[in-house]
Amino acid sequence: MKIYEKAPAKINLLLDVLHKRDDGFHEVEMVMTMVDLADRLEMEELQRDTIIISSQAGYIPLDEKILPSRPPS
């Protein structure tokens, strides 16, 4: 079974990266606004425990850079 979703776009008007948390991610403070753009996502459950990303856009990384297994240190 495939699921189709729309992922609305946003624009960050202010983005301030604050301190690093204990889990390796950073706290952020931001002000954002929505725009009338969106990506169309198609998702399908796989038989194995993995995520596969594909895209027709040449500028989207399709390797582990887009989905790190853990936060960067």
UniProtKB/TrEMBL annotation:
Q: Which InterPro entries does the protein's record reference?
A: Ribosomal_Su5_D2-typ_SF (IPR020568), Ribsml_uS5_D2-typ_fold_subgr (IPR014721)
Tell me which UniProt keywords the record has, alphabetically: ATP-binding, Kinase, Nucleotide-binding, Transferase
Protein name according to UniProt? 4-(Cytidine 5'-diphospho)-2-C-methyl-D-erythritol kinase
